[in-house]
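REQUEST
  id: r-88c1
  op: predict_structure
  target: DUF2975 domain-containing protein
  payload:
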Amino acid sequence: MRLPTPPRLTTKPGGQPIPLLNDARRQFRAMGPGSVSTLLKIALDVAYVLLGLLTGLLLILLVTAIFIPIDNLNITVTSDDGGRQLPLTRMLLVFGLGAMTAYFGGFMLILRSLRRIFRTLTMGDPFHPDNVRRLRHIGLTLAVVTGGVWAAQGFVAARLAPGVMDKQGIGDLLTPIFSVLIVFVLAEVFREGARLRRESELTI
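RESPONSE
  id: r-88c1
  status: 200
  body:
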């Protein structure tokens, strides 16, 4: 008994693609309405709203921490050597809440730019001129957030909780720096794509 030969994904004699290939292309689209970019845009919108609520809550706690009394309060800080109790000073509380607010606020800025980039992808216009500026903003914000986390952890380890938290070394910055460089390279790729599109429009 001979098994039926599966259909081949080739073109018809006239050079026209077969309907099966067309259906597969219609089902999977990276850009345009109803594409994967649309789903990612919705996910980014949800994440942006949730992150905004979290950042707003941290901001309220930060303002409250400036005025509420915090006498005789301790916190337990865990490390590889075990746990250690530290007095919860106002400076430590305000610094911790301020650092967390700035951290999540920075990622809100990154998500805002990403949402606008994916909005152009859902419109089928990836090389929009504004995407170059948005990618550069993402790279700059990521660099500031990474540097801020590195400096904050060093300050906490040296001043606020000495002997509990280890300082970050220069080696811990290699991966974030590599990520920032990739974003700036992508910005240049998009800038070149936008330039080529302008030249093509002028030619036509």
